[in-house]
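dude i think i finally got it to work??
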Amino acid sequence: MRPRVVCGIAAAVALFATACGSGGGGSASVTAQASPAGGYPVTVADCAGKDTTVAKAPTRIVTSNAASLEMLLQLGAGDRVIGTGFPPGKGTLPPALAEQGAKVPVLGDKAISKEKLLGSGADLYVDTFGAMPMMGGAAGPSEAEFAAAGIQHVYLLSTACAGTPKAAKAPRTDLAGIEDDIRRLGAVTGTAARAEELVTGMEKRIGEVRTALTGVPEDKRPSYFVFDFDAGTKQPVAVCGRQVANAVITQAGARNVFADCDADFKPGSWEDVVAKNPDWIQLAVRNRGSEEATRKAYDDAEAFLRSFPATQGLKAVQEGHFVRLGSEVTTIAGVRNADAVRQIAATVHPDLVKNGQ
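look at this
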């Protein structure tokens, strides 16, 4: 089978945009400061530490992409979302949220244009891009323009702070920044109780895995490669240490073979993958919108690795060590990252972790 090309790294960048950049998560402040009695006002900081005070619950919210949209749907604030950029593809959202998510107006297939965002009538914009260049080359509004339009501007710090001077340079190894973002959005939207419920559930699932793997030393944990099939096969994409997937893999008791590259995603080579010779390979395909179509995508990804001369001799391929787990729950920051941790752990440590328990 010859390598196929889907636009190479461009496909990964498209998911990167949908995943809101999911980059290293250093930030000046990751928790919201609410009034002593709870409720409002709520003060949150951006990546540079500048505070924004939200005086009352927003009623007309615009999200920059599918990641922030899904968080708001999970929080129960989806009925207040009046538009989004980078909309979720078919099958991207969990089934319980898909119908509501599909009804959210799309203000931009990629980044929302400045004019459309400022004219949206929103009172809150949830930004997952921050200082990163806007996809498609469009420049976002200035803070003065947001203020003039009556739109308060808040961030998902675990993603928007990537590339800023305060961004963490070390590999991301836990989901604390994502949990903080859920709490922050909960405080800002008046859904703090639901946010705490979501975070508690995440911590419980991850904590159970961590406890089960306590006796497995670091150097005995299997090496792991995320094969982004949809990014093309001519040049594989490395999922690096600052991507949220690195935290998912680490918490699941495995070692990302590309954890040492200082980025989110980087173009790689099959020579790099062969040199790493991973113990396990994740077949990370996008949800195709139906079980049958998605299963076929997994089959196609596995068939490529088994037939391509550069990969057919890899240890994971020879032993059939494949993890069938979608890109969305692995590389997009959100509540379902905890489920991905458990699924990976149950696959690579089946004697210690059982999926669904």
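DSSP finds 14 helices and 14 strands in the chain.
im so relieved honestly
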